[in-house]
């Protein structure tokens, strides 16, 4: 069974940093492009970042502007998102998402909540 | 970014009746490999999104056959042939042909 379990969310002050992790199991992690997608409270879905199977290529939503870094450790079956210079509008649930071979997200984690507040 | 526009944003439906959601993109979603990367997701209250349809019309495993997707180019539709109580939630279309992926605003389906 495919499982994606996020962790690392929490309360952070504006301008602060946070590192999210996503532990993957039930599939060959190194064979899938992986993504982070977020959802602000009561709002829709927004792509944050994606990373190629070997980590050599990364891509980010335009709003990231150098503040976040996506990475992966295929030996640990884990995806990461290092977030810095956090702002109020970064608040929301961050989902770890597997990109299927069919080119769209087929499995989503349960999400981890990021709250930015002083 | 490619803009994806859904309508309606709210859809009250009578149980057993059909429902239809429209999704339009600002650019063609036909990728260089010839595939059209348009997907549909269902998000029930308090849950993560679940994919229903990929590449316009392919239903995911376990998705009831009352759900169907159609369309081409920039114009797509999700249809529910007979709405059931478990279909309540927010439905999103998503384009995966251009980075970043972009999602429609969501359509809230509720029972009248």
Content-based structural category of chain B: mainly beta
The coarse overall form of chain B would be: globular
Q: Which two protein chains have the largest interface (Cβ within 8 Å of the partner's Cβ), and how many residues from each?
A: A-B, 22 and 25 residues
What is the residue-mean pLDDT of chain B, rounded to a whole number? 96
Proportion of beta-strand residues of chain B: over 45%
| Alpha carbon gyration radius of chain A | 13 Å
Q: What is the strand tally of chain B?
A: 11
User: How many helical stretches of chain B?
Assistant: 0
Q: Give the amount of beta strand of chain A, in percent.
A: over 45%
Helix-strand pattern of chain B: EEEEEEEEEEE
The low-confidence parts of chain B are none
Mean of all residue-level pLDDT scores of chain A:
96
Largest sheet of chain A: 7 strands, mixed
Task: Let me know the largest β-sheet of chain B.
Answer: 7 strands, mixed
List keywords for this structure.
heterodimer, A: 118 residues, mainly beta, seven-stranded mixed beta sheet, four-stranded antiparallel beta sheet, globular, B: 112 residues, 11 strands
Brief sketch in words of this structure:
The complex is a heterodimer of chains A (118) and B (112). Chain A has 118 residues and is mainly β. Chain A is 0% helix and 52% strand.
Could you characterize what this model shows?
The complex is a heterodimer of chains A (118) and B (112). With 118 residues, chain A is mainly beta. Chain A has no helices and 11 strands. Chain A has strands at 3-7, 10-12, 18-25, 34-39, 45-51, 58-60, 68-73, 78-83, 92-99, 105-108, 112-116. In chain A, the strands form 2 sheets. In chain A, strands 2, 4, 5, 6, 9, 10 and 11 form a 7-stranded mixed beta sheet that branches. A 4-stranded antiparallel beta sheet of chain A has the order 1-3-8-7, with no helix packed on it. In chain A, a hairpin with a 5-residue loop joins strand 9 (92-99) and strand 10. Chain A starts with a strand and ends with a strand. By secondary structure, chain B is an all-beta fold. Chain B is built from no helices and 11 strands. Chain B has strands at residues 4-7, 10-13, 19-25, 38-43, 50-54, 58-59, 67-72, 75-80, 89-95, 102-103, 107-111. The mean pLDDT of chain B is 96.
